[in-house]
Amino acid sequence: MAEAHQAVAFQFSVTPEGLDFHLSREAVRQLYLAVVSSWKKRLVRAKNSFLTGVYPASPSSWMVVVVATAGSFYCQVDPSLGLIARIRHCLPESPLLGAEGRTAVSVGVFSTGVWLSAVLIFRQLLKLLLSYHGWMFEPHGKMSRSTRIWVYLESVRPLMDDEKYGRMEALAKEFKEKTAPRLQKYLVLKSWWTTNYVSDWWEEYIYLRGRSPLMVNSNYYAMDFLYVTPSHIQAARAGNAVHSMLLYRRKLDRGEIPPMMALGIVPMCSYQSERMFNTTRIPGKETDTLLHLVDSKHLAVYHRGRFYKVWLYYGGQVLPPRDLQLQFQRILDDPSPPQPGEQHLAALTAGDRVPWAEARARFFSQGKNKVALDAIERAAFFLTLDEEEHGYSEGKEGCMDAYAKSLLHGQCYDRWFDKSFTLVVYKNGKLGANAEHSWADAPIVGHLWEFMLATDKFHLGYTEDGNCKGEPNTALAPPQRLQWDLPEECRAAIEGSLRVARALAQDVDFSCFQFSAFGKGLIKRCRTSPDAFIQLSLQLAHFRDKGRFCLTYEASMTRLFREGRTETVRSCTAESVAFVRSMGDPRRSRSERQKLFQLAATKHQQLYRLAMTGAGIDRHLFCLYIVSRYLGVRSPFLDQVLSEPWRLSTSQTPQQQLKMFDMAQHPDHVSTGGGFGPVADDGYGVSYIIAGENLINFHISSKFSSPETDSKRFGGHIRQAMLDIAQLFDVPPAKGAQ
User: Fold this and answer.
1) Has 133 been annotated as catalytic?
2) Per the domain annotation, does 494 fall within a domain?
3) How many other CB atoms are there within 10 angstroms of residue 128's CB atom?
4) What's 93's DSSP letter?
5) Does 540 fall in a domain?
6) Of 311, 464, 619, 669, which one is least surrounded by beta carbons within 10 A?
7) Are strands 279-282 and 266-267 parallel, antiparallel or unpaired?
8) What's the pLDDT tens digit per position in 621-664?
9) 570: Cβ contacts below 8 Å, ≥ 6 apart
């Protein structure tokens, strides 16, 4: 998603100096820090798994095996068929262990062996099932450097002439033979002792060390139902939405949210969900940090330039929706003006990170400013009661574009961009979310969003007049207004960040539209996956828009692995280029174009599966680059790889991760999806959601400042490309389709 921008533009700030010995020592130090961080996470997970016990390799499952074995053994039933007695006989004599102690140790050793064997067998069965379904082509981590480099060269071949490709091939060969073996040793060492050899460095260097604004460059957004607004009362919609999110947090805390399943059999890692609530990104001069609390019992709210603290519990119970509505209505009815400098305060989180870090250290480290800032940073999440009205309005051109821009950057001072996510509720009852990217990727927020929308509409509901159900508790203390003392120097810093943010926001060109000619139902008649169909349409549209091909980024999740985040699918392939060229070649027959399309679609699906199953290339090359910088080893090959611009960055928003209602029975309750800002200054960012059988929503971003891009024009090319490809397979558009 938006990480493509960071992946190209990140600045590596670690510059160790000295002899090679010192450089190697610095690299080893970083591996040590990664190991420490990884094992801290393991301990936290071990503590939690004793409560849930749902994962086959959890300590609680080990305890079950031990207790069951011990119980059987002491009931004169030997499940080991004599192995426990043999283990006991092999134990060395010790005065510290009596007969009972030796028996207990023997039972523990046997039980642990049985548990480990079961875990290994279970994992091998999963691999076999994945292989059977065509998802896993070789074991994780077994793809050789030579193979990865060859796959990289294959991906850039369509974008280079013979001379440039020859130079790149020479660089790759030199890297493979001379530099890569040395770098790889450090990654192998790291992979032995950490749960994921990529994700910690990815979070650190791609996100937390980025010094450019989070707004537009890194954040992303999610939208409301497209056609339905459950209540037009702003405070009521906020009450139900906030209560739904608190219910989701409680389920997370209790381990009641089952993991998403790949192919219905393989659980995907949900580690990122643990930081969804009570998390804030804290600015630093060189690198940011993530503040995550175990729990938070209040909410930070912004309305009309004022900040409030709203308690979420009363008498030890979560406030019901009607009480939350009362509290939010009190904020809406508050006539008090903002304090000096308060209205634009959140612009500090929208501008460059270093000025914000300096202002935070200077003006918010003590007194009432620290108390107020703590109330925001330690809140469960952030809520904006927006004064604008947005949403889909039939026949109103540009309404979805304005909706998207509002969620992405707002007024540049009415979202707290450092919070894990900001819930935005508009004056007309529509809502949306703005999410910070470092702690998690879009599917995690999408999981919460689907739960909230479904719970709000189908479980909590509203009265006939649009209010939350129930009677309000008028004895509740009103929301607490946060107090600030912002001197002139601080206000100057706020206005400086606001200028930077406004310039960035005003440059964003957004086009958000619905493609209703057909959806995934008819795409399947083309004998390909909907994602491959759309990706090839994007390649065709981009070629028609710019007259050339470009490096294309599609985000693929790697949550089949512990702490997995994303991998890159390089969608512009030799096969897709051949298909696109055939569409503009009158000498090509329809059957030839169909064949080239199928070859390109098959290649795309293969690349996607490789990325999902740990056989991608970009994250591994990224880690090799990190090691090279710590060692002070310059690699022209890696420099070239990491500096290549992704002029077309794409991502599919997941749909119906949770089956909380039947889309067939409620076709008007489709989600609008979400999107992100432009990635390259002269490129496009495209997010799409396949909303049911007959609708696909597109979110296209670019920059007004680029003479090469136009989001609305590109959207027109996408529409036409989808229709042209469908015609190859006799897929008729729906009546009255757009």
Assistant:
1) no
2) yes
3) 11
4) P
5) yes
6) 464
7) unpaired
8) 999 999 998 888 899 999 999 888 999 999 998 776 666 677 67
9) 155, 551, 552, 553, 554, 607, 618
Are 76 and 98 within one domain? yes
Q: Which residues contact 440 (CB under 8 A, 6 or more apart)?
A: 272, 273, 275, 276, 420
Angle of helix 20-52 relative to helix 618-631, nearest 10 degrees, comes to: 130
Find the DSSP H helices in 194-341: 199-201, 234-253, 321-333
Q: Provide the pLDDT for residue 495.
A: 97
CA–CA dist 443, 657 (Å, integer): 9
Give start and end residues of each alpha helix (H) in 378-479. Answer: 399-409, 442-454
- Of the CA atoms within 13 Å of residue 625, those in its CB half-sphere come to 24
Catalytic residue among 5, 243, 303, 437: 437
Helices and strands counted in the chain (H then E): 23, 20
Per-residue confidence band for 79, with pLDDT thresholds at 50, 70 and 90: confident
Cα gap 417→397, rounded to integer Å: 29
3-state helix, strand, coil in the chain (%, to 5): 50, 15, 40
């499952």: which residue's tokens? 61
User: Does residue 400 lie in a domain region?
Assistant: yes
**Burial tier of 263 (Cβ tally within 10 Å: 0-12, 13-18, 19+):** exposed
Choose one of 460, 480, 506: the last residue of a domain: 506
Encoded tokens for 69: 């074995």
Q: What is the CATH number of the domain that holds 695?
A: 3.30.559.10
Cβ-based neighbours of 419, under 8 Å, separated by 6 or more? 279, 280, 281, 300, 376, 377, 379, 381, 382, 436
- Structure tokens of 151? 């796959």
How far apart, in Å, do the first and last CA atoms of the chain sit?
26
Edge-to-edge strand list for the sheet holding 508-515: 508-515, 696-703, 684-690, 648-652, 552-557, 566-570
Is residue 661 in some structural domain? yes
Which residues does 235 contact at the CB level (< 8 Å), separation at least 6?
325, 326, 328, 329, 332, 385
Pairwise CA distance, residues 179 & 632, whole Å: 12
Q: What are phi and psi of 552, to 5 degrees?
A: -115, 135
List strands edge to edge, sheet with 431-435: 480-481, 306-311, 298-303, 382-385, 421-425, 431-435, 220-223, 674-676
Residue 526: pLDDT band by 50, 70, 90 thresholds?
confident
Domain boundary among 487, 506, 525: 506
235 lies in the same domain as 282: yes
Residues 498 and 550 in one domain: no
pLDDT at 667: 78
Give the total residue count for the chain. 738
Instruction: Yes or no: say if 294 and 44 are a contact pair by the CB < 8 Å rule.
Output: no
The domain of 293 spans 213-506
The candidate with the shortest Cα–Cα distance to 327, out of 348, 341, 313, is: 313
Q: What is the pLDDT of residue 525?
A: 80
Distance CA 93, CA 251 (A): 49
Q: What are phi and psi of 158, to 5 degrees?
A: -65, -15
Question: Looking at the structure, do residues 420 and 552 belong to the same domain, yes or no?
Answer: no
Contact indicator for 481, 41 with CB cutoff of 8 Å: no
